[in-house]
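Table S2 (text version). Query chain:
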Amino acid sequence: MITPEPRDPLPFFVYGTLRPGGANHDLFLRGRIRTEEPGRLPGALLYDGPGYPYAVEEPGAGAVSGELVTARPESYGSLLTELDRLEEYAPGDPRNLYERVARDVVRGDGTAVRAWVYLAAPAVAARLRARGRPIEGGDWPARR
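Corresponding structure-token output:
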């Protein structure tokens, strides 16, 4: 498997507050994206967090629903930097809440595309597996 470089212009898979209607969608994405389409991250569970969700990989689990967002080329670098900051991700930092990883996301038509996904960092994922509350159906906006 080829691991993309951190700045490779992959689309982003968003599943929480960055989805349309979410608190951070317009703040971070308005005017900076070229396309936005439904997608699903297979082999993952979604857990409720303190005002935002966490996706945790679980082979054989269901899927997390979200949006596949493609940034405008001229906005990509700054958007990547801002999303890393929002998700409290810094490469190699053991205090990370999330890890940005490249994963295959399935589009509505069934095709897969490689995308950046912010998954719960290992320590956070371990706590969620032990004491977390999974969101049934893997869809953050539908949790209510």
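Notes on Table S2: Helices lie at 25-29, 76-86, 122-131. The chain is about 20% helix and 35% strand.
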